[in-house]
Write a structure and sequence with these properties.
The complex is a heterodimer. By secondary structure, chain A is an alpha/beta fold. Chain A has nine helices and six strands; from the N terminus they run H-H-E-E-E-H-H-H-E-H-E-H-H-H-E. Chain A has a six-stranded mixed beta sheet with strand order 3-2-1-4-5-6, with helices on both faces. In chain A, helix 6 links the parallel strand 4 and strand 5. In chain A, helix 8 packs parallel to helix 9. The longest helix of chain A has 19 residues. Chain A is globular. Chain B folds into four domains: 144 residues, Jelly Rolls, CATH 2.60.120.10; 117 residues, CBS-domain (Roll), CATH 3.10.580; 177 residues, 2-Layer Sandwich (Beta Polymerase, domain 2), CATH 3.30.460; 138 residues. Chain B is 48% helix and 16% strand. The radius of gyration of chain B is 27 Å and the shape is globular. The chains are: A alpha/beta, B alpha+beta. Chains A and B meet through strand 3 and helix 9 of A and helix 1, strand 1, strand 3 and strand 6 of B. Chain B: InterPro entries: CBS_dom, CBS_dom_sf, CBS_domain-containing, cNMP-bd_dom_sf, DUF294_put_nucleoTrafse_sb-bd, GlnD_Uridyltrans_N, RmlC-like_jellyroll.
């Protein structure tokens, strides 16, 4: 797993490094990869959550990105960021789910600007998602459409961590964010359900999971199942 | 960017410490907050050596406890509570902050904490009070001739430094893992022991306790013909016979067990119970009993009895189970009563006839708590004549006054032996009970529910056994009476509203609290009493009644096990709250504000109440038919 992660990281870097050099993504291709043997405590984590107008990356688009930083196994509350993205295709049917209306979104950032801001946070960080494939598909699609190269980073998936933990215990249980949080005694997510509250909720879940895996001073990225972001989800590559 | 609903800021904005702050200050604080998590059993660092010094820690969810180096409980924290690491680090004794339930907490940076503290008078005052409470606590334990546990340097010569060998119960009762559960239970019953060691080739491989029988056999419905190896606790904690009592106590407290096998190089040689450790303590119940038995005046007795609340608080701190605390308190009340009766005899001379002193209510059930009132009476043998009452009137007053002086207050309803109404011959009592059982007035029912829990404390036990047998036979055959008792019992109902919300009392001084006795333990006591009247069960203690009901087949083993657990849980919370009130110097009562409980405990309490409600419904279906 760890070997595969570092191979695939190097391969991605080689393949897109040149193309990225003239884009806002250059910084993340110049940075060094997170070391898979390093410990939770030694790493900076960027916990990310996205809201989209639908589940299909070909027809739907990113509406917002939220993130928060974990350093020294503590969530830096002030690092929380919430970017709204201008939707040329409109918020569509999903309005009911996340409460983002066309009117709110009008005047928000362009997708390119949002990805640029996110890319500034990425170097030196391990990214964290709850159910990474969906968010990754949209992030990579948007990055590729705007800059002709995907985002490059190491990431962990709190849903996979949870799934593995439950399998070890031989338990079958829900993997939705709220269900996972409940198992660790985390409080119910309060307020409106949006990309930033979900990113914070995921960050808290990661702290809880690593506390149970042995503590931030003992759990390595490898143990957390770090993977490399690839372009596999991108249409036309 | 948009205006965000911000969980951290929303949370701190409603906490006592920060709720008065302006929006801008709240924002400043939340920008300097770091969120961290620790699972249960873990410890939080209280030193200030961190790269990023922490000014204040606030619990967001879960719970923590603070103990000093001797493991004395200093404080318990749940959502919204805070502590200041620097204060703990500077306290005279080393403090340990342990996580009780998975805990999400906020750390406020030292710089932000100092800045808000110097700018806000209220916070500064609160933090000073907080800091002082730790200083004051420490100075108190240094000056006062305090119990040994508080003093670090006195540890070496304290009672806890004594050898395990001197206090264990020997020899150890051992059995092979192949014997059946029933056989194990028989061995335990025959030898009057509450735990059995399971050995293979003389080596300890497991332990089987009363609790295991309850939780792993009865509650799960395991057949008693199964081998004991399937339900025992394998590889139990144990201690070497050369160990010290404080080590044993640590093991027992940290792993929540009440029986610790004692071994000599892996071979079991004895057993150490929580009560053995208590026996070693100078405040243990036995030494109080000795003090009571040596007292020659009421004043001396009162002086000994004054130590009782301290003992109870210590028992609570050691996580003694509620029913054991109830038994200990009751045994001391019994001892006080007997001593007073003896003193009365020296004052008034020999009684003119056979007699027995009866305890009713909680004392009869061996469930007395702090602040319980007297409920007692006298029964004369049928050989008594008019002179008997002339003798016993001042005699009983002497005892009742004496108990009152010892802190067991007079009964507000005057159910005491000094009241001529409650001094009768056996025949008179039989007639009275008969009247209560036939009469359908509310007053008769109230009396019945008090008087049906009766136990002899001193004198001729046969008189009481006789009376009880008579009453049970009468009550059992009267279905209308049982139905009325059931209806009466249903008037105390668990304090749950629609959707399992707590319904709080708003009467008198107790604004918005739960009455854990009236709406909690008493409901279970009532259920146990009614069923045992119906099945002519002579046990008086609630737990024993429930167990007897299961044996007699009048209640399912699942329901019995659940009710026993619910009773223990509610009684435990009540006891804890009483201990805290006593510590704080408040009046000890049965009230509790559920907000002071952690969310998990609150949830469990609701579950316990829900169960009681179901049991009440079952009782209504069974006995209510006659009138409801």
């Amino acid at each position: 797993m760890a070997v595969f992660y570092s191979l695939s990281y190097r391969w991605q870097k080689k393949r897109y490094g040149k193309a990225a050099s003239k884009t806002p993504l250059a910084g993340i291709y110049q940075a060094t990869a997170p070391v898979s043997r390093s410990l939770m405590r030694e790493n900076r984590f960027l916990v990310v959550d996205c809201e989209m107008s639908g589940l299909d990356a070909n027809r739907s688009q990113l509406l917002s990105i939220g993130w928060v930083v974990i350093e020294n196994a503590r969530i830096t509350h002030a690092s929380g960021k919430h970017l709204l993205i201008h939707a040329d295709r409109g918020a569509g049917d999903s309005t009911r789910i996340h409460g983002l209306h066309d009117a709110t979104i009008a005047g928000a950032k362009s997708a390119a600007a949002a990805i640029t801001l996110l890319a500034k946070q990425v170097p030196g960080s391990v990214l964290v998602f709850h159910h990474a494939p969906l968010d990754l598909r949209f992030l990579q699609q948007t990055a590729y459409e705007n800059f002709r190269c995907p985002l490059l980073f190491g990431y962990v998936d709190t849903m996979l961590i949870e799934q593995r933990r439950l399998q070890l215990q031989g338990a079958e249980s829900g993997l939705r964010l709220a269900q996972c949080r409940e198992r660790y005694g985390l409080p119910p997510i309060s307020g409106h359900h949006n990309a930033m509250t979900d990113a914070r909720a995921t960050a808290e879940l990661l702290l809880a999971q690593t506390s149970y895996l042995g503590g931030a001073g003992r759990v390595s990225l490898c143990r957390m199942g770090i993977q490399c972001s690839r372009n596999q989800y991108v249409r036309g590559v | 960017m948009v205006a965000e609903t911000n969980d951290v800021q929303n949370f701190i904005a409603v906490q006592a410490l920060f709720q008065h702050l302006a929006e801008s200050n709240l924002e400043y604080l939340s920008n300097n907050i770091y969120v961290a998590y620790q699972k249960s059993g873990g410890e939080l660092e209280v030193g200030t050596g961190e790269a990023k010094p922490v000014g204040l820690v606030m619990v967001r969810s879960g719970s923590l406890e603070i103990r000093d180096a001797q493991h004395n409980l200093i404080d318990r924290l749940s959502a919204g509570d805070f502590f200041i690491p620097r204060v703990l680090a500077q306290a005279p004794a080393e403090m340990i902050v342990r996580v009780l339930e998975d805990c999400l907490y906020y750390e406020l940076s030292e710089s932000a904490f100092q800045s808000i503290r110097s700018n806000d008078e209220d916070i500064s005052r609160l933090c000073d009070t907080y800091a002082r409470s730790y200083q004051a606590d420490a100075s108190k334990s240094d000056n006062a001739p305090a119990p040994a546990m508080r003093k670090q340097h006195a540890f070496t010569d304290s009672y806890l430094d004594q050898s395990v060998k001197d206090y264990m119960t020997a020899p150890a009762f051992c059995a092979s893992p192949n014997i059946t559960i029933r056989r194990a239970a028989q061995i335990m019953t025959n030898n009057k022991i509450s735990s059995l060691l399971i050995t293979e080739d003389e080596r300890l491989v497991g332990i089987m306790t009363d609790r295991d029988l309850r939780t792993r056999v009865v509650a799960k419905g395991v057949a008693d013909t199964e081998p004991v190896s399937g339900v025992m606790t394998p590889k139990p904690h144990c201690i070497d016979m050369r160990g010290r009592l404080h080590q044993a106590q640590l093991v027992m407290m940290s792993s929540g067990i009440h029986h610790l096998p004692v071994v000599d190089r892996d071979v079991p040689v004895g057993m150490l119970g929580m009560s053995d450790i208590m026996r070693a303590n100078n405040l243990e119940p036995l030494s109080l009993t000795r003090g009571i038995n040596n007292a020659t005046t009421v004043a001396e007795l009162a002086a000994v009895a004054a130590k009782l609340p301290d003992l109870v608080v210590k028992l609570i701190e050691r996580d003694t189970r509620p029913y054991e605390v109830g038994e200990i308190i009751t045994s001391l009340s019994d001892a006080l009563t007997r001593r007073l009766l003896r003193l009365a005899e020296t004052v008034y001379g020999k009684p003119p006839c056979t007699w027995a002193w009866l305890a009713f209510g909680s004392q009869a059930r061996q469930e007395q708590m702090l602040g319980s009132d007297q409920d007692n009476a006298l029964i004369y043998g049928n050989n008594a004549d008019d002179s008997a009452d002339a003798y016993f009137a001042p005699f009983a007053r002497f005892v009742n006054d004496g108990l009152d002086a010892c802190g067991i207050h007079r009964c507000p309803g005057d159910i005491m032996a000094s009241n001529p109404k409650w001094r009768m011959t056996l025949a008179g009592w039989q007639k009275t009970f008969n009247y209560w059982i036939q009469e359908r007035s509310p007053k008769a029912l109230m009396h019945a529910s008090i008087f049906f829990d009766m136990r002899p404390v001193a004198g001729d036990r046969e008189l009481v056994n006789h009376l009880r047998g008579y009453v049970l036979a009468k009550a059992r055959s009267n279905t209308i009476f049982l139905a009325l008792m059931t209806q009466n019992a249903l008037e105390h109902s668990p304090p749950l509203g629609f959707f399992k919300q707590f319904v709080l009392e708003k009467d008198g001084d107790h604004n918005h609290t739960l009455d854990l006795k009236k709406r909690g333990t008493i409901t279970i006591v009532d259920i146990a009493r009614n069923y045992s009247l119906a099945a002519a069960i002579s046990e008086v203690n609630t737990i024993s009644r429930l167990q007897a009901m299961e044996r007699a087949g009048v209640m399912s083993r699942e329901l019995v096990a659940s009710l026993v657990d619910a009773h223990e849980f509610i009684a435990g919370i009540r006891l804890q709250a009483q201990g805290e009130k006593f510590h704080a110097g408040d009046t000890v009562d049965n009230q509790l504000d559920p907000k002071t409980l952690s969310p998990l405990v609150r949830h469990q309490l609701k579950e316990a109440f829900q169960l009681v409600r179901q049991a009440q419904a079952a009782m209504k279906a069974r006995f209510g038919g006659g009138v409801l």
